[in-house]
Structure formats: structure tokens, C-alpha cells
Amino acid sequence: MSRAFDIMLIALLIASAIAVIRLKDLLAAAIVFSTYSLMMCLLWLHRGAPDVAMTEAAVGAGITTVLFLVTIGRTTRRER
Length: 80
Prior knowledge:
Largest sheet: none
Strand content: under 5%
Number of helices: 3
Order of helices and strands: HHH
Number of domains: 1
Shape: flat
Distance between the termini: 44 Å
Helix content: over 70%
Structural class: mainly alpha
């Protein structure tokens, strides 16, 4: 069960990383990046590192996403 969960999380991480690179809509890319950070948080928690998971959740999914959204709100949403 644990091995299957690890493989599923890694597959989702790879898929979301590729999606972030390929998306042309910056808002959608920021949201997918936020889900990437949340999946990394789950992976760290599952691997037994709750301190790293909390840091990833706070910085990766929290502060970084807010900064991305504020920046996108002050600029254009679509890449040229």
C-alpha cells in the first residue's frame, strides 16, 4: 500500500510539473504549482518528515502562491 501511494504521488508530481511548464495561462499555472506544493507536502508527511511538510505547506503552497497571484493580478494573465 505504501509503495503504491508513493508511486501515485510521484506520478502526480511529474504530471503537475509538466502541466506548469506547458500552460500558457499564468493564473492556471500558479494554481497547478500550488497543487504541486501540496502534493510535495503530502509526500514529505508520508515519508516521515512532518517538519519539512509543514514548511512546504506554509512556504510552497501558502506564501509563494499568494505572491504569484498578487503579481499576476498586477500584470497580464496570459503569456505572449
